[in-house]
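My current task is to audit a protein record that another person submitted. Alongside the sequence sits a line of tokens, each denoting a local backbone shape. Please read both lines and tell me whether the tokens look consistent with the sequence. Do not assume that whoever made the record got everything right. Thanks in advance; the entry in question is below.
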Amino acid sequence: MSVFTENFLWGGAVAANQCEGAWNVDGKGVSTSDVCTGGSHTKSKRITRTMEPDTFYPSREAIDFYHRYKEDIALFAEMGFKVFRFSIAWARIFPTGMEAEPNEAGLEFYDKVINECLKYNIEPLVTISHYEMPFALTEKYNGWSSRECIDFYVKYAKTLFNRYKGKVKYWLTFNEINAGTMPMGNFLSLGILNEGTTDFNNQVDVPILRFQGLHHQFVASALAVKAGHEIDPQCKIGCMIAHMTTYPLTCNPDDVLKAQQQNQISNLLCGDVHVRGEYPHFMKRYFKENNLEIKMEPGDEAILKEGCVDFYTFSYYMSNCATAKADASISSGNIMGGAKNPYLEASDWGWQIDPKGLRYTLNELYGRYRIPLMVVENGLGAYDTIEEDGTIHDDYRIDYLRKHIVQMGEAIEDGVELMGYTPWGCIDLVSASTGEMAKRYGFIYVEKYDDGSGDLSRRKKKSFDWYQKVIETNGAALD
């Protein structure tokens, strides 16, 4: 028998900037993703302030979901999806972010995507802002470092709530909002492009801009939650955190404190503001010791209290270890690195695989917040090989997902209220961090490669049939 509830939301997740393409179609404006070039396993993508000739910008075509959404959603329905998490491209609705009226063609596109989902009884789970914004807002205001972006975002969010009222029950305000606590999160999550920057991974960090930008996003999210509830009282609005589960490398108290402090800044800051409606106690000392003074306008604290989320969602790919030792061996990971855990294996990209860490994380989060949780990103980025007969035997992906689903079941038996599960990249798409296609996550293979070649045809991997069975049995059949 399955431990998952009868209404458990099984599905998958994508993002507009990594799958849609059609970057200049039907009135869409230039987004921050449209000026990011391709990279590789060892070289991150670059940011260009102007469009460079003979340069590959992978998000401009991506996997062309814009023109193939019917085919893709039909495949999701064949797998049995109960929910499909996708994002809306802000620049498709407000091309510069500053228009008085929205772009009707952009709204109509999402009408069609949402209606296609509902045709198959798939609930849309919509992320309002997923690692992109109109590039004009970066150019004019340096993104979220300026308070002006709050009003632009709230107008955009209200437009969506009004347009899709009664059709979209579940919303997320910002994707992995806590990326703004990390230097490498400047551009993707905040649209901050510091002067002279050409490489996403090598920005000259200006911490006050990041944390001020994060505060502006907190206020914008709270205002959007309040507006969404007023426009459509039936909808549920959640947050989304990149959970950076961190253990102390050893039982040395210095390592234990280091892990606690890292967890506080990386995870709990954003969770507490979203769920509890206030900055946590430890931020006062952090701001003081780092010479950071966040400018809050009168009324901001009340806004945060009034705009608490209904549910908490997060991404979980790996865990990290923290240590006070300066010479510890470092492992790469989702947004931030950490000391290598000698008890764990790693993916081709160095992300340490820790299924039991997901159970631990679910228990920690539910114990702290006591609101419904949802794992909205989890998966294995790997190299996939097409066999001579056209099949793709991704047993490594099945093994990864199976072990994580088992641990979700354990967490449910522990008493955690878990709403659903949407593995990341249910169809192959462009990597957010590098612009690669080689780093594949999907149940569906897309004929597209790092140099931009490929006919974009779709084919099922072995994991497609496996996940179909998982959903059909509500998580009871995992072999």
